[in-house]
Amino acid sequence: MFSKIKNTSNYHIGAFVFCIIVFTNCSNTSQNRNDIFYYNEDAGITSLDPAFAKDQNNIWAVTQLYNGLVELDSNLNIIPALAKSWNITDNGKTYTFYLHDNIYFQDHDCFANGKGRKLISKDIAYSLIRIFDPATASPGAWLLNEKWLPITNPKIDKNIYNNSKIIETPNDTTIIIHIAKAFPPFLGQLAMPYCFAIPQEAIEKYGKDFRSHPVGTGPFQLKFWEDGVKLVMKKNPHYFEKDIYNKPLPYLNGIVVSFIGSKHSAFLEFLQGKLDFMNGLESSYKDDVLTKSGGLKQQYTHKFKLVLGNYLNTEYLGFLMDDSLPLSKNSVFANIYFRQAISYAINRKEMVAQLRNNIGNGSVGGFIPKGLPGNIEDNIYAYNPEKAKELLHKSGFNTKDEITIYTTRNYLDLTVYIQNQLAAIGVKCKIENNPGPAQRKMVSASQALFFRGSWIADYPDAENYLSLFYSKNYSPAGPNYFHYKNSEIDNLYTQSLTITNDSIRTKLYHTIDQKIMNDAPVVTLFYDRSIRLVQNNISNLPTNPLNLLVLKNTKKAH
Fold this sequence. Notes:
Dipeptide-binding Protein, domain 1; 4-stranded antiparallel sheet; Dipeptide-binding Protein, domain 3; alpha+beta
């Protein structure tokens, strides 16, 4: 049923020799494979600098190399990491963190004698300030700028800690962060990879090349990386965390990331036991693995495990609505009736059943997914082709015209389904299929009028989803890829940032989401679920609603 990989023997001989060279502490190749976790990243990795951990492929890699002040557990509870404790004062505007005193950066030649030094509070201050330094150009800057006290073009130098009133470091194990206004999701934001701790020495030595010379405090450290070929991480022997039996973490000796561009080919590697887990399934083989109801077929149960999890991921179609841009001026997508017609034209439940084996929820309300307070339970745009035709007629759309949907190969089947659904109401579509990086670049640069997208939560608060519709977050600086602007939404969103009462804030989130859906700048397609295939000898590989890959506790049986 499955096609063969070209040059398979040469590829594996190379990988075999490569692993012997890299992991010289292993006595034989069998021992080697049992101590190393193998996974594939078909989208590639663009940077190992946490300031650029925007996409899941980068996030997974940097999560193994660094730590933040806090982290999220499998249930998205905020738990200690570099900070052993903290308190919040000044009506939610001052955060004081107390650091562990036994954490060291990984050994690296950016330090004297190549030995990692102890992490101190000024390292955290430097790392955080670097995020919103314009010179860094971090895509995470938009998350923090309006929440901090006003600062203009901060200059990062040896005096930054004395000159800044945003962050105080009274001693090596205490850091105090002041924000301009109370913002309840702030603590969760500090768990994001953007906020991971780095040493200033590494930036001074490598500058922009820090992307390929990472230095952190995490459970693993970089051994080798060649773009598009392989990334290898080895165990950090000085990692500070231990398990409940006081045994040092991590258990694994290393991680090997391959960059096989085809999910189908990667699946073949997984079937042969050469990858330890797969994230997601491609249409070309999902029906061979899954039942129609989304379970694992009997013939595979003894070979590997199917792990499904809640996933804060909203799949959508987006419209570019900025009439100040030549591309979108006088566009049909500026017409609210046309956008609403598209929403009513798609049978989401059938789409999820047929194309996703019922893994996902096609009964959608707003943009905020199920699992987050503020989610709309009602199916706002339930499938109604007659209503869609009425709205299409009201919009004045010329059915002789043709629109283009921009998508990627992993979602081509879904986009073809949408193409057929829109054809049924009189809207002709062509599909432009792009590589993932090219698609993301086009959408961010406002070069796609109608596009398929996903929004995976960066932190567990509905504000993260509503921020896409705040006019000050226009792309490319922010995530408002639609260039949607509504002064009422802006005012309500800004108001929500100041409310510390959870129930009141949740009601406001609900109201904002409802109003956004009425304007229809996006078509919410479905709320996703995470799906993983995991080899039976792998244990302690937790799932969580952000679909993070956390390997410090993972074990691989011999």
